[in-house]
Design a protein that fits this description.
globular, Rossmann fold, 15% strand, alpha/beta, 7-stranded parallel sheet
């Protein structure tokens, strides 16, 4: 297939999990992909996966919590390919687990820096470039916790709610400039983020909360991101689309 033929795309947090799946899917659909991560080894491994499958990609190091790194990433993409058409701002962290009244301040600051500020910084420079291109599509990775609580994770919930609001604001501001912006709200997906933070009993409990009684796969989220990034969703902007196996349906 070639839904993104001749497009130049960017994915943050692309060294593993959903980000890697999105980068691979973008390349499969014909895009040239800038793979970004704070882990050089993981990012380069994603690039190699894409190249092994016949796609085109390169790695650009960026700490999404730093405005200057987001600007440098866009500059590197434009220097290599001359434009930026599609972006998936996926990088995120889980943060500490604690009641809000006991939540460590440094943990709050770090989660907000990566999960909310980082999305704003990315969009800030992507929008600037896409306006020069004459259009583009941004997909921000939110979460089901952009609409429902995640007890013991106040910073994560607040940040993801913020991503949804930011996405809607961008859509309202840039709709007449041929730039679309949407958010995806994954439920619990089997990624290293879950494996690193939850034990087997917790994972099984989460599976049971979804109507489909299972965790999602990164590739299932990537397929939705590809749709929102492509012209197949040309009249869709400002949307927040949940993909959670029915977790929030009840």
């Amino acid at each position: 297939m070639s839904l993104l033929k001749d497009k130049v795309a960017f994915v943050s947090g692309a060294g593993s999990g959903i980000g890697r799946a999105v980068a691979v899917a973008y390349a499969r659909e014909g895009a040239k992909v800038a793979v970004s991560d704070i882990n050089n080894e993981h990012g380069e491994a994603t690039v190699q996966l894409i190249k092994d499958a016949g796609g085109e990609a390169f790695f650009v190091y960026a700490d999404s919590s730093k405005a200057e790194d987001n600007k440098k990433a866009v500059d590197a993409i434009v220097a290599k390919y001359g434009r930026l058409d599609v972006a998936c701002n996926n990088a995120g962290i889980g943060g500490p687990a604690a009641l809000t009244g006991e939540y460590p301040v440094e943990g709050w600051d770090k989660v907000i820096a990566v999960n909310l500020n980082g999305v704003f910084y990315a969009c800030r420079y992507q929008l600037e470039q896409m306006a020069k291109n004459g259009g583009g599509s941004i997909v921000n990775m939110a979460s089901i916790h952009g609409t429902v609580a995640a007890p013991m994770s106040a910073a994560y919930t607040a940040a993801k709610h913020g991503v949804v609001g930011l996405t809607k604001n961008i859509a309202a501001e840039y709709g007449q400039k041929n730039i679309r912006c949407n958010a995806v709200g994954p439920g619990y997906i089997h990624t290293p983020l879950l494996d690193d933070n939850l034990d087997e009993d917790s994972l099984n409990a989460i599976k049971g909360k979804a109507a489909m009684n299972r965790l999602g796969k990164p590739e299932e989220i990537a397929d939705l991101v590809v749709f929102l990034s492509s012209d197949k969703s040309s009249f869709t902007t400002g949307s927040y689309i949940i993909a959670d196996g029915g977790y929030t349906a009840v």
